[in-house]
Each structure stands twice: as structure tokens, then as C-alpha cells.
Design brief:
The protein is an alpha+beta fold. It is built from three helices and seven strands, in the order αββααβββββ. The radius of gyration is 14 Å and the shape is globular.
Length: 165
Amino acid sequence: MALSPNAKLAFRKQLADFCLDAERYASRWRYSQRRPYSGIGAAPQTWHTNDCSSYSALCYWWAGHYSKHPVADCLGWHYSGYGNTQSAYLYLKPHRAPVDRYRIGDMAIYGSVWDTVHMMICRKEGTENSAVWSSFGRDAGPEARSGIHYHPSPLVGVFRHPALL
């Protein structure tokens, strides 16, 4: 079920703030694809060991908790510590974001529909070239990216969480 307009605003603000803080404290983040992932409820300024998909789940959990408008796990695993880019794609694929009208919380997924390899989350709304995306795909920690076509793998699509439709 979609959130109310005011709830969406509150959720998106918390999500963008989490991403921005994670980028500011990128040196405290380490890259690992281990499962179960950890860090649910931990502030973005603390020490984390995650990957791109668990980073997205942490963002969504934080935004839901601190906006007081929790939403379903964007990885489709109920914030259990499991899930990855493929489970995120399967959960989100019915909900493509409108092209060039990206909103905070939209997720860009890369690879192919059978083998997804990376995802990033929109932290500043805009178009294909003006939106800012938060990405965590290497040991340097979360970082801001402008434009959705930076990754060497093809873009599968940009998707909007059903609660944010």
C-alpha cells in the first residue's frame, strides 16, 4: 500500500539524509557480500560492512523507522539480513519509475534480468543526468553518482518501491 503524500515526504527526507551521512562517513564502511548482512538500525556514521543491496535495505529500514512510516524491505526478505540485487529486482520489477522523473528512493538496477550485478538508490530527484544516486559497490564506501549510466553493466531499469508510488 502506498504511503500518503506527507508520509512519502517524511520517508524520502530520512532516506536522503541517511545516504548523505553514509557518503560523508564513507571511510567507516567496508565492502562485503556476506549474508546475513548486518547493520539494521545502526546510524550511517558508525562502522558498517555491507554491499550495494544491503546498503539499500539499510536506507529503507532507517527511513521507515525514523519517519515513523515503515515500508516493506526493498530486497523482499523482511529485513532478515538476506536478499540481494536479484531479489530486489524480483520485488520491484512491476514498478518501473517514470523515465527521467526520478524521485528519492528510486532504485537503478544493473546487469541483466537473469543476472543482476549492482544497484544504487536515488538520493536527489531529477532527470537521467541531474538526479544524484547513492552507490556502494566498492571498499571506498558509499558515494554520490550523477547520472544512471556510469556502471559498465547495462541498466536493467529504474524502479520505484510500491509504497512510494
